[in-house]
Amino acid sequence: MAVTDNTALLRARCKMIKTRQNALKSKERN
Predict the structure, then answer these.
(1) What domain of life (predicted)?
(2) Rounded to whole angstroms, how far apart are CA atoms 26 and 3?
């Protein structure tokens, strides 16, 4: 259970980081 929870948290963090990077890139383009 703990392992699956950790992987889920890591995936969520990766998604948040990717979305933030994409937002910064879009801001720079505009």
Answers:
(1) Eukaryota
(2) 35
Q: Which residue in the block uniquely carries the two structure tokens 């259970």?
A: 1
- pLDDT, tens only, 1-30: 577 889 999 999 999 999 999 999 998 876
Place of tokens 């383009």: 29
For 3-22, give the secondary structure using H, E and C.
HHHHHHHHHHHHHHHHHHHH
